[in-house]
Design a protein that fits this description.
11 strands; alpha+beta; DUF6758; globular; Phosphotransacetylase
Length: 217
């Protein structure tokens, strides 16, 4: 069975290359790198994705108590390798008094090369790259948060997300998106862990895995 591939910028079904080669395309956005369906995470799959990825596969360490990895999704075509990768984690709200309506919190960490558009799509934003917005923010305001990723301090700036919160910056030469739902959980969580690139972990990542988050279905 052929897995359905979609456009990273809008989620519509992508058109396969023709018999004589070519590229994947989207009716609205033209030439794209297709995204496969979100996968239920396992330790083995995390390792396989890391081995084929051209971008970091960010894993939060340590995960807060009661949290699990709840989704993997990536963009790539043919033998070119993965050019965008999403790792989703979910768990209980760190501030129970603020989590009555949404007791479960979802976080996504997206690493992608410029021009892909998956992070912006998951954040509900128009456009492909956050570059222009980030340049304007960085010119006038200091970073709103700083997150440690592979022993490097990464400055991040916020962008609006419907019902949630997103931060974006640059890490390891590509975009790093941090998406959180609900927004009340973001700041309370992001100072509890650092990010580790699974590509630099020699063994299968030792992280608890759960069922697929509805945010990636």
């Amino acid at each position: 069975m052929t897995l359905l591939r979609t456009c990273p910028r809008c989620g519509s079904v992508a058109r396969e290359p023709g018999e004589h080669g070519g590229t994947w395309t989207c009716e609205e956005h033209g030439q794209i790198v297709p995204v496969g369906p979100a996968q239920v995470p396992t330790q083995k799959l995390l390792r396989q994705v890391a081995l084929d990825s051209l971008v970091p596969v960010w894993m939060p360490r340590p995960l807060p108590q009661g949290w699990e990895v709840t989704g993997l999704q990536w963009a790539g075509a043919g033998a070119g390798g993965t050019v965008a990768c999403v790792v989703a984690v979910s768990g209980p709200h760190p501030l129970p008094e603020m989590g009555d309506e949404e007791p479960t919190v979802d976080l996504m960490f997206v690493a992608e090369q410029p021009g892909i558009g998956l992070g912006a799509h998951l954040a509900g934003m128009h456009g492909v790259d956050p570059g222009p917005l980030l340049a304007e923010k960085a010119a006038h305001d200091p970073a709103e948060i700083k997150l440690e990723a592979d022993d490097h301090e990464v400055p991040l700036w916020s962008v609006p997300v419907d019902g949630g919160l997103a931060y974006v910056g640059e890490a390891s030469g590509v975009w790093l998106w941090v998406l959180a739902w609900p927004s009340s959980a973001a700041l309370a969580l992001l100072n509890r862990f650092c990010l580790v690139d699974a590509r630099n972990v020699e063994t299968e990542p030792d992280l608890p895995c759960g069922s697929l988050t509805p945010r990636l279905r």
